[in-house]
Amino acid sequence: MKDALIAKLQDKSAVIGIVGLGYVGLPLVLRFAEAGYRVIGFDIDPAKVEALARGETYIEHIPAAAIASANAAGFTATTDYARAAEADALIICVPTPLNPYREPDLSFVLGTMDALLPHLRPGQIVSLESTTYPGTTDEELKPRIESRGLAVGRDAFLVFSPEREDPGNRDFTTRTIPKVCGGCTPACLEAGLALYGGVIDRVVPVSSTRAAELTKLLENIHRAVNIGLVNEMKIVADRMGIDIHEVIRAAATKPFGFVPYYPGPGLGGHCIPIDPFYLTWKAREYGLNTRFIELAGEVNAAMPDYVVAKVTGALNSVRKAVNGSRILVLGIAYKKNVDDPRESPCVILMEKLRDLGAEIAYSDPHLPIFPKMREHRFDLCSVELTPDSLAAYDCVIVATDHDRFDYAMIRDCAALIVDCRGRYLEPAGHIVKA
């Protein structure tokens, strides 16, 4: 079974099924199609499936021409999970959020696996790419597959290979970012290496799915902890009257032993604000408290409140209250130059200011209409930045520092600016660092 699957993967006669056509799944679709595989994409959102059939894109950094090329190569998208039986490989790329109690929510992963189960057959490989706690693949997916009478490692193959997408980063592509892969058995790992070896320049094998799952968590917790450190340093520096961005620039000149991280209004994106909690939750099963990781999470989670306090102080300095003030938030994506608002601290900041009575608006050239989000709702469209529109607001907050903003115009036309990103290096009376 294994040898036949590997042969099909190597000669590219295998059909690749990718479940979840978002920021992770869609780039994988394009890469497998580009490499010569026939690809079937699965998603529960009919609007995405219809857009892809028309050759349209719904992710800003993925051009429509790439979708059209994939379609011409035989790619099809569907909401019909019964077509999973056609695939030799099924790659699961669905969200793994937190529930209201900051505990892992595997409902998307498990719901997807349960939807695929009736259509599994011998000779397939299933790969989970969604970030999760160590043990998920072994403890949750493997028993489900074996409930179909398929022995994992003999009849079917199961691996964990965490996504490493960085939307908007032109220096790295799906092909050039090394891919970690761990299998439930040695045979599973062999099949996983064959699956990804045909489309990724370097595949990094690890000893187990648990090692691969923890690898992904370590990568993102490393960032979360360091961002927490620099966010706390920002507060200390501000109290001492020191510009933290000047300090970071100076420290970054050291050619060894220092990696610059930059403060902001909080953590965003699907991974970094969420992944630490997957590990802390699982660690409790082993009687461990991950105090260092949880402290960084607390620091980062407090950043929107810190910005609100800075906005309140800035408005007070000009004899205005937050209640009734018109406040414009620049950027609602979680990082610069992308159209991805997932877990964006800017949206949390907007909600907190709205709850205090402010009249909130936003401007984001990458998100012209406020997107549908599971937990946040605003009926807003992006404000076009002009001298007149900027002058109409009591306070302008630089929340996400997109390159497409005209920062000179913003400086010259806004009455009051709260800068969360260090875009303004020179001191000015109407600019407050946050």
Structure commentary:
There is one protein chain. With 434 residues, the chain is of the alpha/beta class. The protein has 2 domains: 2-211, Rossmann fold (3-Layer(aba) Sandwich); 244-433, 3-Layer(aba) Sandwich (Rossmann fold). It contains 15 helices and 13 strands. The protein has helices spanning 2-11, 25-34, 46-53, 64-72, 107-116, 136-146, 186-197, 209-239, 244-251, 275-285, 291-301, 303-317, 345-355, 387-391, 407-413, and strands at residues 15-19, 38-42, 76-78, 89-92, 125-128, 157-160, 179-183, 203-206, 326-330, 359-363, 395-398, 417-419, 431-433. It has an 8-stranded mixed β-sheet, sandwiched between helices. Strands 10-9-11-12-13 form a 5-stranded parallel β-sheet, with helices on one face. Helix 2 crosses helix 4, helix 8 (209-239) crosses helix 11 (291-301) and helix 12 crosses helix 13. It is globular and about 75 Å long.
